[in-house]
Write a structure and sequence with these properties.
Helices cover about 35% and strands about 15% of the residues. It contains 9 helices and 13 strands. The strands form 3 sheets. It has a 9-stranded antiparallel sheet, sandwiched between helices. Strands 1-13 form a two-stranded antiparallel ribbon.
């Protein structure tokens, strides 16, 4: 299997289980608090915004309620606290929230969205009064979706300048969503299905742009899954000598740099791991916390060798505990599966990626191939 040459970390599953104690010691210096493993919350957290009131509501509704429902008997007092605190923030800071929304039309929409949040918080109070445990996560997600809508409208423009050496390649200047359909050939549970993946250009514009451009080229359509070992699901090796994408214009292998945005930084670190720059204690904005974390595979000792091969992490808490795994800071995450991640558990080596297609955010891709040109080229081949 040629794709095996681009394993994440360049290690086998057995080697990862026996990873050197020195590296484990470094990893253990990371935060001991259980990090967020919800893909949607990770994406909300990594948005480049600074509005404290909307972040406060987000954290009350996500963190407090998620912790409250995690125990066998739901802590209704914590759910009540989250709802009450969110209502207080709305009552006091609604103007401060709207102030940071960009554009008159978006401000008007935000005002209406805040009214919806207020209404749903009142509905939440009814759920608490009835002690209806089943409805809590449903209402929680409804409110968080509205919060996210406002947060997205707070971003005035792309937050940083991509280095000149990478600015001419495909760049995702924002976010995009793609749909991946997979056919499972050996699963006893399913014949296949679809997954929705959100690509994050705010934190990895070069990496996400490269992937989105390949999606637009239909590069991955019909490609087999080349690795599924309980640690990752990996594909993207086209089977050529270079094991990556050959740019038809240059006739050369197209690669992207290692690109990692650290929490608190305004621009990503390029060309080096966090170990290389002495920042191994710090946490990336897009960590390997969620089942279905999407990252680029590369050669172990060449940080800028990623091309087309990608992998999804099958998170196992014993092997890669959130915030202390051996991948953070060494491999560039650029997205998460937000819907249909259960399918990933059934995907095996030899299964087929039927297609990956863009479902939103296509216009955010700068220097990407025109999809109409790809369709026209496909028609020409069919006619010929």
């Amino acid at each position: 299997m040629k794709g095996a040459g681009m394993l994440p970390v360049g290690l086998t599953l057995a080697q990862l289980l026996d990873f050197p104690n020195t590296q484990q010691a470094k990893a253990s210096l990371l935060t001991a608090q259980q990090p967020v493993s919800d893909a949607r919350e990770l994406l909300r957290d990594s948005l480049p915004i600074t509005n404290k009131p909307i972040r406060r509501i987000q954290k009350e509704i996500f963190t407090k309620i998620t912790e409250a429902v995690r125990v066998p008997n739901v802590k209704m007092s914590e759910v009540q606290s989250a709802v009450s605190e969110s209502q207080k923030v709305l009552a006091k800071d609604k103007p401060a929230i709207i102030k940071d929304v960009v554009g008159d039309a978006a401000k008007k929409d935000a005002s209406a969205t805040l009214a919806q949040i207020e209404l749903k918080l009142n509905e939440f109070q009814e759920i608490i009064d009835k002690k209806d445990k089943q409805e809590i996560p449903i209402k929680q997600q409804e409110i968080l979706s509205l919060v996210e809508r406002i947060e997205n409208d707070m971003i005035p423009s792309f937050p940083f300048k991509v280095p000149a050496e990478y600015a001419s390649g495909p760049l995702l200047m924002g976010r995009a969503a793609v749909e991946m359909q997979v056919t499972c050939k050996s699963s006893s549970v399913t014949k296949g299905g679809k997954m929705k993946i959100v690509l994050d250009g705010y934190n990895a514009p070069v990496t996400a742009g490269n992937f989105l451009d390949l999606v637009k080229r239909k590069f991955y359509d019909g490609m087999p899954v080349q690795r599924a070992d309980g640690f990752v699901v990996q594909s993207g090796d086209p089977g050529n000598k270079q094991t990556g994408f050959i740019d038809p214009n240059t006739k050369e292998l197209r690669t992207v740099p290692l690109e990692i945005m650290v929490k608190g930084d305004k621009t990503p670190i390029y060309d080096a791991t966090l170990d290389d720059v002495g920042r191994y204690k710090e946490v990336p904005n897009l960590p390997f916390n969620a089942f279905g974390t999407l990252a680029m595979a590369r050669a172990e000792f060449e940080p800028n060798s990623a091309s087309s091969q990608f992998f999804f992490l099958l998170k196992e808490s014993e092997l890669t505990p959130s915030g202390t795994n051996v991948l953070d800071g060494r491999y560039g995450v650029f997205g998460y599966i937000t819907e249909g991640k259960e399918l990933l558990k059934e995907v095996k080596q030899g299964d087929t990626i039927d297609y990956i297609k863009v479902i939103s955010g296509s216009d955010n891709c700068k220097n990407c191939i025109n999809e109409n040109a790809v369709a026209a080229a496909s028609e020409d081949v069919t006619v010929a």
